[in-house]
Amino acid sequence: MSDERRDHWEKVYNTKKPREVSWTQEIPKASLDFIHSLSVSKTASIIDIGGGDSKLVDFLLAEGYENISVLDISEAALQRAKERLGAISHKVKWIVSDIITFRPDTTYDVWHDRAAFHFLTTPDEVANYIAIAEQAVKGYMIIGTFSENGPKRCSGLDIKQYSEEQLTVELSKGFNKIHCITEDHITPFNTIQNFLFCSFKKK
């Protein structure tokens, strides 16, 4: 499945521009608000899971965060982000990996995931993700996933919707919930996707 998933996302990022995919945001406001709410230092280790060519890293660098990693299964996605950042791209650690086979060599103060977790649709995939996060996270986790009022498919793939209760239960072994919101994301095509965003603290 990992090769099939990688091939899917490489094709997406090699054939579609940012304005041609639904998840594109000019300003990742909810993600930034949640990160700010944690009041971590500018030297905190932050990883963006499934970050692709998201502009979250641009904003974090502009705000002075110094220890940022971006993980994505698609090398093409990360290459686009590097090219966009240009000379400052070296300030970021870029990681090409499927999240469920990721073997982190460090721990993170903040684990951020907007729109990667909901692509894991089997119990084994979800369990692998959570086990990796429990080992890698020493501080906080922020998850943005499609809510029960969100889409049932994205980029031609089935996804798994979550309620606040379901997401809290999935992470309850290793994390305590801090705060949740729902947000309507307006896509580049002027359609609406309802997201559930929650923050958690490592137990």
Helix-and-strand structural type: alpha/beta
CATH superfamily: Vaccinia Virus protein VP39
Point out poorly predicted stretches.
none
In the CATH hierarchy, the architecture is: 3-Layer(aba) Sandwich
Averaged pLDDT, please? 93
- CATH topology tier name: Rossmann fold
N-end to C-end Cα span? 31 Å
Q: What's the Cα radius of gyration? A: 16 Å
What is the class in the CATH system?
Alpha Beta
- The count of DSSP E runs of length 2 or more, i.e. the number of strands, is 9
Largest sheet: 7 strands, mixed
Strand order of the largest sheet: 3-2-1-4-5-9-8
**Strand/helix succession:** HHEHEHEEHEEEHEE
- In one word, what is the shape? globular
